Amino acid sequence: MDDIILQILNGLDKGSAYALIALGLTLIFGTLGVVNFAHGALFLIGAFCSVTVSRLLSISFEMVDETQLDFLGNPLKVETPYVHAWFGPEMGASLIDWAVPIAILFAIPVMILVGFVMERGLIKHFYHRPHADQILVTFGLAIVIGEIVKANFGANPIPTPAPAAFAGAMDFGVMLGFEPNAIIYPIWRLVYFLFSMVIIVAVFAFLQFTTFGMVVRAGMADRETVGLLGIDIDKRFTFMFGLAAAVAGLAGVMYTPILSPNYNIGMDFLVLSFVVVVVGGMGSLPGAVLAGFMLGILQSFASMNEVKSILPGIDQIIIYLVAIIILLTRPRGLMGRKGVMEE
Amino acid sequence: MSNSNFSRRGVLKTGAIASAGLAVPTYLRADGHTGFTNAPADGGAVKFGFNVPQTGPYAEEGLDELRAQELAVEHLNGIGDGGLLNTFSEKNLDGTGILGHKVEFVTGDTQTKSDVARASAQSMIQKDGCIMINGGSSSGVAVAVQGLCQDAGVIFMAGLTHSNDTTGKDKKANGFRHFFNGYMSGAALGPVLEAEYGNERNAYHLTADYTWGWTQQESIQASTEALGWTTNQNVLTPVGAGDFSSYIAPVLNSGADTLILNHYGGDMVNSLTQAVQFGLKDKQVNGKDFTIIVPLYSELMAAGAGSNIQGVFGSMNWNWQLQDEGTKAFVKSFGEKFGFPPSGAAHTCYVQTLLYADAVTRAGTFNPCGVAEALEDFDFDGMGNGPTSYRGADHQCFKDVLVMKGTDNPTNQFDTLEIVEVTPRAQVEYEPDHPMFAGGDLGECNPGA
Question: Where are the beta strands (DSSP E) in B209-365?
Answer without folding.
Answer: 230-237, 258-262, 284-285, 288-289, 291-296, 313-316
